[in-house]
Amino acid sequence: MLKEKTSRVLFLIILILSAVPTCYGQYKISGYIDAEQKNKTVYLSLLKYDEETMITENQILFSTETDEDGYFEFKGQLLSEKDKLYRIHSNINTIKGLQLVSDNEKSNYHNFIFSNRDTIYFPKSGNNWFSESQNSNLADKKWRNLKSFEEQLEKNNAQIKNKEAQQQAVNDFAEKVKSYTEKSIKHPLLKLLAFSDIKRNDYNIKNDFEKDDAFYDGVSNSLKNYYGEASYYLQYQDELSKISNVILQQKYAFQRTLNYFLGFLVLVLAVISALQFKRLKLLQPKQNQFGVSNLTLTNQEEKIAKLILEDKANKEIADELFISLSTVKTHIRNLYAKLDVANRHELASKLKNHPWN
């Protein structure tokens, strides 16, 4: 009975130990460099999304040397469980240091998508090192399809010479890549790499972002869901922040210019209004004086006006001029009408500067 229990415990321990590598994953990167020099150094680097054609020392994770047959190998459990962009490369000329070479005759690197649970193998391929690969990562295969699609678009646009047509070709490239990404790609890293290709192709992302930010927001949400608020998500958010800041600065500059213009316009209008008011104020007495000095009064009206200024009553005016009271009242009404006044006080004010004969 005891032996039976011991056997079961040992079986469980063996089962658990055998499951550990599967749970945590183990990557393997291996292959050959077909080079005359032996013991060449091979580097494995982790890249940012927009570093496909850049090479710096701080990208390098590990390095190893080939054996006499040109074989190299990286393996372990230290890479990310999430798909990320890596590079395998070896310097053709060790004196010149870190260099990326890629043409029809020779290449010394290969960028690929990989995770801690994947394997990739590079068979011998002559001078084009790493040009052939066998990668178990499914996202990498879809990335190759995206690259082929973009290369075909660029090939069709390569023959265009006219500058306006070239710019239109750039716009068409961006729109077609965006459409392809939205229809055929779900992996967030591939969406991010498509964005990088659009940006690298001199497309005016700022204007496109202002017109329709749905594509860019979609990439952001996809990255956040897969990577969390780290890694490629933060790199992409930093890029969008730069674009948003440029847009805000332009809007602020326009608003500031508009405010300055409106402020200047208000100031000009205020000055014009003040000058106009001053002019009217200066002209008003002259108009009154001009109207009175050129006023034509009859001889009898002037006599009555003078008596009114002497504060004579209507009856006193009639007695002094030997006319009836009703005639006096008639002359006074005529004076009121000519001078546009309503009473004796206003009449006296108007006549104080009148040049009497």
Written account of the structure:
By secondary structure, the protein is α+β, with helices and mostly antiparallel strands. It folds into three domains: 25-136, Sandwich (Immunoglobulin-like); 144-247; 299-351, Winged helix-like DNA-binding domain superfamily/Winged helix DNA-binding domain (Arc Repressor Mutant, subunit A, Orthogonal Bundle). Helix content is 57%, strand content 12%. The longest helix has 63 residues, at 231-293. The chain is rod-shaped. Mean pLDDT is 83; it is low at 14-23 and 286-291. Keywords: Coiled coil, DNA-binding, Membrane, Transcription, Transcription regulation, Transmembrane, Transmembrane helix. InterPro entries: Sig_transdc_resp-reg_C-effctor, Tscrpt_reg_LuxR_C, WH-like_DNA-bd_sf. The chain crosses the membrane at residues 258-277.
Quick structural overview:
It holds the Pfam family GerE. InterPro entries: Sig_transdc_resp-reg_C-effctor, Tscrpt_reg_LuxR_C, WH-like_DNA-bd_sf. With 357 residues, the protein is of the alpha+beta class.
